[in-house]
Amino acid sequence: MHPFPFEELQKILELKDTELITDELLFNSVMTTLEKKLGYSLEDKNYNEIQTVKDHKVYTDNDNITEMINIIDMNTKERVPNCIINGREIFLLSTEYEDHVLFLNYNAGFTPEDFPADLKEVIIKLFLLKKKEFIKTQNHEDDYSFEIPQDIQNIINLYRRKTL
To answer: Which stretches of the chain are DSSP H helices?
Structure first.
């Protein structure tokens, strides 16, 4: 489930019942566009990864970790205790894991409770822009093209995946 479901957008914008199918398709298009721009899924999902320890650290592939379920040292097949999670960085408190391969099992993404308000605003604004462009195409107007305004792009850039 999306951390910002269509039903919430429907309530906020008081969307008409007669246009719900089209509106939901536009909403799904907005979510796909946003996730492509961000470089990750917004939904809270489970991930499994293999990472090698360097300088007592490993980095997860996904941001917004909601739960670290398990870290297994693949060299010893034992669970790794005592680590500090800071964003995508996992700092191991013991030096014995240096250059070891770790199996990480964690959940990452957003839940409805922690979904950022500015990203909700981005979704609403993008939806309204896409709906406006859709109406233009329905009316056979020539000047339709979908571009994300700079103020919206600036907020997206704040959440965009940063490479290490």
So the answer is: 6-13, 20-38, 117-138, 150-159
The interaxial angle of helices 20-38 and 6-13, nearest 10 deg, is: 120
Q: Are 61 and 106 in contact (CB under 8 A)?
A: no
pLDDT score at 164: 46
CA–CA dist 126, 83 (Å, integer)? 39
Beta-bridge mates of residue 85: 90
> pTM for the full model?
0.79
Q: What is the secondary structure of 55-68 as a DSSP string? A: TTEEE-SSSSEEEE
81 vs 164, residue with greater confidence: 81
Q: Residue 2's CB: how many other CB atoms inside 10 A?
A: 21
> Which residues face 49 on adjacent strands?
104
64, 164, 147: which is closest to 111 by C-alpha?
A: 64
Q: What is the pLDDT of residue 163?
A: 58
Query: E strand or H helix at 151, and its extent?
Result: helix 150-159
